[in-house]
Amino acid sequence: MSIVKLEGVSFVYGKKSPYEIHALDNVDLAIEENLITGIIGHTGSGKSTLVQMFNGLIRPDSGRVMVDDEDIWARPKQIGKVRFKVGMVMQYPEYQLFAETAREDIAYGPKNMGLDDEEIKHRVAKSAKFCGLDGDTLDKSPFDLSGGQKRRVALAGVMAMEPKLLVLDEPAAGLDPRGRREILGGIRKYQRESGTSVVIVSHSMEDMAMYCDRIIVMSHGKLILEGEPKEVFSQVKLLQSAGLDVPEIAKIVASLREKGVNISKDIYTVEGAVEALSALKEGGGKNVL
To answer: What is the pTM of this model?
Structure first.
């Protein structure tokens, strides 16, 4: 079942000006419940504009945006309620922190929802735990925290609203490998335990391969490919023609196949390649599926 649907959505920046850009062109897509969906595309492909449609940050020029099978623009004055259902974490969200303590920052969204103090306290504690924030950290000013901790506070603030869909635009941008694993691993743990639907926008093909259940590929404002990671990353030439890279291991697998190694094309992680090559060796060169 879908949590968000776009039907024939188009959007143009700078209409009727010399700088007119068609960011989205008649896009149809569905974001399925209880999955982590990755959205990839080259710079200017429309992916950031796309996700800002999900909770009404941008209104389409044409087409419909449906959340829980309701057109979010049917009642524009109630668009704020949509943002409690679809929580958005923008790129570098740490720059949006403002409260005196991390705890207060995380509590801001639940307070705006009109929740009572006990429920707010419960949600702050739960979201902080998911994001790896301890009590001492919560009582500090967010401006005294490290970059990674600030990112976690911002993420916890959206999680505390318990949205049905959590949308993250480059959540691991600028972090070192350990920080990336901690943030993205925490998001996956949160999704698996809470059942919340998650959308991740990222340039990292390795991250997409490792953490996503489904992937959508954008190019020049259009959806050009979607499916499970193994389906998407097996389309090496199509992705490269769209200006995208693929996981390094997918390139290696494609090269091995071109050289006659009888290995499945549906391999896109190092773990999968190790398993397949080991089985191929033990099987005396038989095909690995």
So the answer is: 0.87
